[in-house]
Amino acid sequence: MADVNRGNRPLSPHLSIYRPQLNSMTSILVRITGNAMIVAAFLLVWWLIAAATGADYFATVDGIVTSFLGDLVMALSVLGLWYHALGGVRHLIWDAGYGLDLESSDRMGWGMLIGSVALTFLTLIAI
User: What is the mean pLDDT of the chain?
Assistant: First the structure.
C-alpha cells in the first residue's frame, strides 16, 4: 500500500543546515589523501620506468619529477602519507574500543592534523 503521509515525513539534513564535525571532515580527508597518493605513486612508477628505459628519457622524466611542481606534488604526498597513516592508527584505536567518546575523538582528530604537519616537516628536513 502506498504511503499517503509521504509529504509529512522529516527529510534528511540538508547541506545548508548540516554543521560539519571534525571527525567527519578528518574521515573524508583520509579518503581524499588515500586517493591523492595514487598520483604520487604513478609519478614514482613513471620515474622508475624511465630509469629502466634509457638515459635520455630518464633525464626528461627526472627533470619533471625534480621540478618545482614535482617537488610540490611529492611534498604534499608525504603530508598525505603521514595523515593517512595517522588516520589508520586512529581507526586501530577505535577498533580496540578506546577513544570513542566525543572529547577523545576530537583530540585524536586534532592530533592527526597537527601530527601529520609536524611529521611532514621532520621528514622533509631529514631528506
Answer: 89
